[in-house]
Specification:
By secondary structure, the protein is of the alpha+beta class. The protein contains six helices and eight strands; from the N terminus they run βββββαααβββααα. A five-stranded mixed β-barrel has the order 1-2-3-5-4. It has a three-stranded antiparallel β-sheet with strand order 7-6-8. It is elongated. Bound molecules: zinc ion.
Length: 253
Amino acid sequence: MGLKREEVFVIRKIDFKESDHIVRLFGRKSGKFSGIAKGARKLESKFGSTFNLLNRSEVVYYQGSSLNFISEGEVLDGWESLKKSGEAIDVGLRCAKSIGELLGEEQPSPQVYSLFRDTLEELDADQRRPRLLEVGFYLKALKYLGFDPDLEDRCLSCGVDIDQESTLQFSPVAGGFLCEKCRGGNGMELSRGDRKSLARLKKLPQSRLRRLRVPERKLTRYYDLLNRFSEYHLERELVPRSLRTAPSDRGPG
Ligand SMILES: [Zn+2]
């Protein structure tokens, strides 16, 4: 029986039988995988808080006939400060959900792993403006997986410099910006400032995003843009619609 040791994020947890958990983990080396933690729900469990959602933990596991069995676990980062903010938790959970959507089973992505760790570290250090980090996370994750939107200052169709135009149109279908001549009916109107903000959110490390002054309503729009882009190019949503609305966005009624 080959034991494996792996650093993981807990991205999903389901109660199983009387005292077990089935967990979805995102490993640094092994990508997404599931495992069963026997007895993890008992009060005196040896696992303690290893499998709290979003935790970065170290686990030891072995492959059974149909499931991985987790035999040891220890918390590396529990993100105590992040977990005091409902909004920061929602952002962390939506990013975790998008990892579930974007990556294939056991598809390793050390870059997305590091990006997720950087994002949670930033949210743990400071709970203000979590959606800046969220939009930055999606843009970079898409880039690492090779599906990122083109945010250059040229029309994707004819190559003309679009930074001279009064308004820009982002086409989710084309996957980038189109000039006034080339644009069609189902794009999103954006400003030159929007294009620059999106390009910075994609390029700058997560630790430097908070210096950007992007209003919340703009971040909501970028979030819609990325979901529309992803629906078209990946045939799936970045984040399922039911989870998309952050509590702060919910209007009356
Ligand atoms: Zn054009």
